[in-house]
Specification:
CATH class of the largest domain in chain B: Alpha Beta
Number of strands of chain B: 14
Radius of gyration of chain A: 28 Å
Distance between the termini of chain B: 36 Å
Structural class of chain B: alpha/beta
CATH topology of the largest domain in chain B: Rossmann fold
Largest interface: A-B, 20 and 28 residues
Structural class of chain A: alpha/beta
Number of strands of chain A: 6
CATH superfamily of the largest domain in chain B: P-loop containing nucleotide triphosphate hydrolases
Largest sheet of chain B: 6 strands, mixed
Strand order of the largest sheet of chain B: 6-7-8-3-9-10
Largest sheet of chain A: 6 strands, mixed
Number of domains of chain B: 2
Oligomer: heterodimer
Strand content of chain A: 5-15%
Radius of gyration of chain B: 23 Å
């Protein structure tokens, strides 16, 4: 009963307008501001990076294949790098996710080029390079239906075929990496351009050019992305409040009354934790509902797994705050938490998607709680993939249990709170 | 019966001994004072009785039960009024008292009644819904007391309850303490204000450096002093004061000169005030003020320790 009494006392903090502003108004305001101001950034921008094209040449060992290789080497000096696809790599997926400017399938019938919709400019450059290759070895001719007879013989079937690739999500849209981690857009749309480049008998013809775009409905808009990112960020910031759970009692000297009363430290600890969890869970649910129904942010059709992940993050923030407050004394605890939260926000994609991070940054990003929390939620909403829900929740709660255990042991050893 | 009994209680912090083999007993119905300067060990002793600190050595019994083995029972019997105001500023006065009283097992109607009674007892019945952040210092002190008494403890421990408040509030609190005692509550009162202790307390223990240096009623303590009358003279002198000449005056027991204050202990019934004044004037001492009174606890403490109660 004392646990509930202490928890109820914590909930009374919600009467404080400053607390309402911090927990509720701030995240909603951030969602609206960032979601509006950065809306254009989520439509796909013109970014010219490395022009890397993945290819698969089934003619290995033949003279045409050798010519292709020679051309590919030469093209690299001009800034277009053709990379052979490793076994098992889905080149179309890689291109659709923006990891490559495009993907080329080279067979005896010719080249099928799949350009990335996420990198339109680079794709066009790559396509030009392929056209140059085709033009080097034969006459190039662009038409739709002009040479029906010949083209009918050589034209491959071009009925649109949904790829039906599951899992993943596109943030801009890209989430998958060249390491083959399963992610990426739920669907790919193929928009065949009506250009074939028919080359003579050299089998170096581009027979089809297809632009790949992740289905727009499977990508988050800015308001959608920041609804998730700001909610998770504010939840993590509540670790600062958690760090004050016991410290505030000591500062106010009410810890003396609590310890002098016939209440165990375990009751006090449990009551404070329960109160914090209920208070922050309530505000998280309110933020989700407000952004969903007032600002039309897309929280998907499966709110339950989304809330499981969010509430697990509340638990993690609690553990982080309390654990650090018992290990690092005084004001330094707040500083440590603030640094951690800012790094987690930066590498976890709170301010901008970190999909294109590579190397060390990618490795650090994967270690951030905000990264796996945001990713799990995005996957549920935009890829209908629940596979990451329990791992994310498990990590959040597991780490929280560890940190709370440290806090509990430390508290038990102390006189007072 | 003894409500509280300490037997050779010691509390150390590393090499520092805060309380040194302290033994005392507080009888039911007493207002028992712990008097001493800052750093004497009063708060440490009180915190050990209230189970806020562990005892390094010795035992403490509450109503005959060792608190180490019956901690919950001991806590249930005690109401603590800490030296610092320990209330929640973001809860109303009513909510504060109700919250703390609830921790002692009060529920429902009884909880509501006791909460209202406690607030009425300290004169805050018309401020139930007020927030402490809008209270004066005196009102906060009274709320501090209300939070400690709502569950009707048998022992109330008050640690410097009148620090930093106006005289009116102070008097209100002292009256409340008398009323509480009259209702059957035993009180341990810790202070360095000698006047309050003299006015209020039935028995006094004087502490210094973690030990009790004297214990008894006010009359018993003042009887310990050989010089029951004290003459305090504020002087101004440019030459060193010859205290030996003063000691030679009939009836003078002790002479202390510190700063510009001369304190002379003398027998009562000996009319030597004129002689003392004449000696000072003849020696060229400029007398600024003079006060003669019977010895008090301040004098007792000064005699026993060589320091005043207000020294830090």
């Amino acid at each position: 009963m004392n646990v509930l009494r202490i928890a109820y006392k914590e909930l009374l903090m919600l009467r404080d307008p400053k607390m309402i502003a911090y927990l509720l108004i701030t995240p909603v305001a951030l969602v609206v501001i960032l979601g509006t101001a950065l809306a254009d950034a989520f439509h796909g921008g013109i970014v010219v990076g490395d022009v890397r094209v993945l290819y698969d040449d089934s003619r290995a060992g033949t003279e045409p294949a050798e010519r292709w290789k020679a051309y590919a080497q030469a093209a690299e000096t001009q800034g277009v790098r053709f990379e052979p696809a490793a076994d098992g790599v889905d080149g179309k997926r890689e291109a659709a996710d923006g990891q490559y400017a495009g993907y080329v399938e080279i067979t005896d019938d010719g080249m099928a080029y799949y350009g990335s919709g996420a990198r339109p400019l680079e794709s066009r450059i790559a396509q030009s390079a392929l056209e140059a290759f085709a033009g080097r070895y034969a006459l190039a001719e662009a038409a739709e239906g002009n040479e029906a007879g010949e083209m009918e013989e050589n034209r491959p079937t071009r009925s649109p075929r949904p790829l039906g690739i599951e899992s993943g999500v596109g943030a801009n849209g890209a989430q998958s990496g060249a390491d083959g981690a399963p992610s990426g857009s739920g669907k790919l749309s193929e928009h065949a351009t009506a250009q074939w480049f028919l080359i003579g008998a050299e089998n170096a013809k581009i027979v089809e050019v297809t632009a790949l775009e992740a289905d727009a409905s499977d990508r988050p808009r800015a308001i959608d992305y920041y609804a998730i990112a700001m909610t998770t960020l504010i939840v993590l910031f509540s670790a600062l409040t958690a760090a004050q759970l016991m410290d505030a009692e000591r500062t106010r000297r009410t810890s003396l009354r609590l310890i002098a009363a016939p209440v165990t430290k375990a009751d006090i600890f449990a009551g404070k934790i329960l109160g914090f969890f209920l208070m922050n869970s309530l505000t998280v649910v309110l933020v989700v509902l407000i952004t969903k129904y007032v600002f039309q942010a897309n929280w998907g059709d499966h709110l339950l797994p989304v809330l499981v992940v969010l509430l697990s993050e509340v638990v993690f923030a609690l553990g982080l705050g309390l654990g650090v407050s018992y290990v690092v004394k005084g004001a330094a605890a707040g500083f440590v938490i603030m640094v951690f939260v800012q790094l987690a926000a930066l590498f976890g994609g709170s301010y901008y998607p970190m999909d294109e991070a590579s190397g060390v940054f990618r490795a650090i990003s994967r270690l951030m709680p905000l990264k796996w929390t945001n990713e799990a939620i995005l996957q549920v909403i935009f890829a209908d993939n629940h596979a990451m829900v329990w791992p994310a929740a498990g990590w959040n709660i597991g780490l929280a249990v560890l940190l709370l255990t440290v806090a509990a042991i430390s508290m038990r050893r102390r006189e007072g709170l | 019966m003894n409500v509280v009994e300490l037997k050779s209680v010691t509390r150390t912090y590393g090499d520092f001994v805060a309380v040194d083999r302290l033994s005392l007993a507080v009888r039911e119905g007493e207002i028992f004072a712990l008097l001493g300067p800052n750093g004497a060990g009063k708060s440490t002793t009180i915190h050990m009785i209230a189970s806020l600190l562990r005892v390094t050595e010795g035992t403490i019994e509450i109503l005959g039960k060792n608190i180490a083995a019956h901690r919950r029972f001991a806590k249930q019997q005690i109401g603590l009024v800490p030296q610092d105001i320990a209330i929640y500023e973001d809860m109303t006065a009513y909510e504060n008292v109700q919250f703390f009283a609830g921790l002692y097992g009060l529920r429902g109607k009884e909880l509501r009644q006791r909460t209202e009674e406690a607030l009425a007892f300290v004169g805050l019945e018309d401020r139930l819904r007020g927030y402490p952040k809008h209270f004066s210092g005196g009102m906060k002190r009274r709320l501090n007391i209300a939070c400690a008494i709502a569950h009707r403890p048998r022992l109330v421990i008050m640690d410097e309850p009148t620090v930093g408040i106006d005289p009116q509030s102070r008097q209100y609190i002292l009256n409340a303490i008398r009323k509480l005692n009259a209702m059957g509550c035993t009180i341990i009162y810790s202070s360095h204000y000698m006047e309050e202790v003299e006015e209020l307390c039935t028995r006094i223990a004087i502490m210094d450096h973690g030990k009790i240096i004297a214990e008894g009623t006010k009359e018993q303590l003042t009887a310990m002093i050989a010089a029951p009358k004290s003459i305090r003279v504020e002087v101004r002198t440019e030459t060193p004061l010859d205290t030996e000449k003063l000691r030679n005056i009939a009836g003078v027991r002790s002479v202390e000169f510190e700063g510009q204050t001369l304190t002379i202990g003398t027998d009562t019934g000996v009319n030597n005030l004129n002689l003392i004044i004449r000696r000072l004037v003849d020696d060229g001492v400029d007398i600024r003020a003079l006060d003669a009174h019977d010895v008090n606890l301040e004098t007792v403490f000064l005699t026993l320790t060589g320091r005043s109660l207000r020294d830090t």
